Amino acid sequence: MPADERFAVRRESVRASVPRPLAAAPAPAGVPLPPGLALRGRLATGARRPETPRGSGRGGSGSRTPRPGRGGGPRRAYERARRAWDRPLTAYYVILGSSLLITVLGLVMVYSASMIKALDISKPATYFFGKQFLAAVIGGGLMLIAARMPVKLHRGLAYPILMVTVFLMVLVQVPGIGMSVNGNQNWLYLGGPFQLQPSEFGKLALILWGADLLARKQDKRLLTQWKHMLVPLVPVAFMLLGLIMLGGDMGTAIILTAILFGLLWLAGAPTRLFAGVLGFAAVLAFLLIRTSPNRMSRLACMGVSEPDPEGGCWQAAHGIYALASGGWFGSGLGASVEKWGQLPEPHTDFIFAITGEELGLAGTLSVLALFAALGYAGIRVAGRTEDPFVRYAAGGVTTWITAQAVINIGAVLGLLPIAGVPLPLFSYGGSALLPTMFAVGLMIAFAREDPAAKVALAMRKPGVRWKTMRRRVKKRSSGER
Fold first, then answer.
1. How many of the other CB atoms lie within 10 Å of CB of 360?
2. Would you tell me the crossing angle of helices 314-324 and 388-412 to the nearest 10 degrees?
């Protein structure tokens, strides 16, 4: 018999040896069928394996194993936070919310920290709070105006604000017009209980004027030359610094110097140029500190934990006492001990110490978190814009608020010398609050000018949203339900 015929006979005998019902029937429990035979049985009978219910796994519990990255946990929380931060209006809401929270909390702490001081000078307990509340209301109006102003109008105000500020700072040095407070000749008397410190407006003037100057030079591609980067920005800044130092206010001069360095860094100053200006400013600051016994005594109070026998470093030591006695959650609002005459300036320069004593570590960390959020949102506005003026101005305002907060809090903690600068938006002082709130409104206006933010704000208007919804809904015939 040929080989082909023998192979065909063997194949037919194997087929005949397999019973048909067994090939089509399901396998008994515990006796699995060979894969080929099971497949052949399903093809022959047309039966399908029952589908497993959706969401049930091998465990039979009915729960579906989450995919990596889609379940709960820190990773998903991080992804949600990142997506929320990338939204167009995030910087707008963070700047608005954090600044308002700092201002409101500052009003509460000014009232709590200043009531004993007010009673000590035979004034009502709400004396300082009332003045600060009035300044906050006026500052809120300035912030709203600045937030609604277009960028071109802000640029147009740069030169007028600078000239008015320089005029007022010169007027301070005129005998009989300027006033001296705590040894500094930098105040103007406005009548009644109101005074004005023009040097606080010098920070805003330098930012607006410097941003406009650098933006125009960048448009003409002149910032690649060091003389165009320094002149006239640095001479005008040093003129403002000279007028401030004539009054003896070195704390404000330090903030103005930080703003100048921030503008130069944003303009892309070379390292050698940046280091040269920084070195010159450091040498000048050393000479000014060395020639003043008052400044040398403040420098010597860094890191002290108790005042010396002659009464030196009294304010620095009692600031540390206030923070140390606060604990985790503080002694309670209004229950501070240090404000009863022990801590000088409890409602201005050292209001952060009273906050730590009454609200504890939780309160101080909340204030730090709000300032960090405000600074980070300002960096985002400066980093995402294509307009050079917006970038320089937003970066200058962020440098101003962040540097002043760091210097004030560092002095209270004993890490830096006491510079005599208030905590932005938080300490008592209308002259400091008004330009700061206008600067915050400036950043809000810049956040609104982002193209994606403009679209998002337009979609939030009721008329625009209704028209958009009407375009999405298809028209139906009269008989359709």
1. 19
2. 90
CA atoms within 13 A on the CB side of 479: 0
Q: How far apart are CA 370 and CA 401, in angstroms?
A: 12
Cis peptide bond upstream of 150, omega within 30: no
Tell me: pLDDT of 68 over 50: no
Note the pLDDT of residue 81.
Answer: 78
Please tell me the distance from the alpha carbon of residue 139 to that of residue 438, in angstroms, as a whole number.
7
Strand order across the 184-191 sheet: 178-181, 184-191, 194-196
| Count of Cβ atoms closer than 10 Å to residue 216 Cβ | 13
Higher pLDDT among residues 41 and 196, named by residue: 196
178: part of which helix (H) or strand (E)? Answer: strand 178-181
The mean pLDDT of the chain is 83
One-letter identity of residue 164: V
Is it true that the peptide bond before 124 is cis, omega within 30 degrees of 0? no
Cα 366 to its chain centre, rounded Å, is 13
How confident is the model over 70-86, as pLDDT tens digits?
556 788 888 887 787 77
Task: Judge residue 211's burial from the number of C-beta atoms within 10 Å of its C-beta, 0-12 exposed, 13-18 middle, 19 or more buried.
Answer: buried
pLDDT band at 88 (very low <50, low <70, confident <90, very high): confident
3-class SS of residue 120:
helix
Phi, psi of 26 (to 5 degrees): -70, 155
Tokens linked to 64: 């579906």
- Sign of the C-alpha dihedral computed for residues 162, 168, 169 and 170 taken in this order: positive
CB 234 within 8 A of CB 469: no
- Structure tokens that stand for 409 in this block: 């809090």
Question: Residues 106-140: pLDDT tens digits?
Answer: 999 999 999 999 999 999 999 999 999 999 999 99
Task: Extract the tokens encoding 218.
Answer: 């960048």
Q: Angle of helix 430-448 relative to helix 127-148, nearest 10 degrees?
A: 30
Structure-token pair, residue 363: 């309160």
pTM flag (> 0.70) = yes
H/E segment holding residue 188? strand 184-191
Please state whether 248 falls in left (phi above 0), alpha (psi between -120 and 50) or beta. Answer: left
CA atoms within 13 A on the CB side of 238: 12
The C-alpha atoms of residue 179 and residue 248 are separated, in whole angstroms, by 12
pLDDT at position 58, please? 44
Q: With the C-alpha atoms ordered 426, 430, 432, 438, is the resulting torsion angle positive or negative?
A: positive
Q: How far apart are alpha carbons 450 and 92 in whole angstroms? A: 10
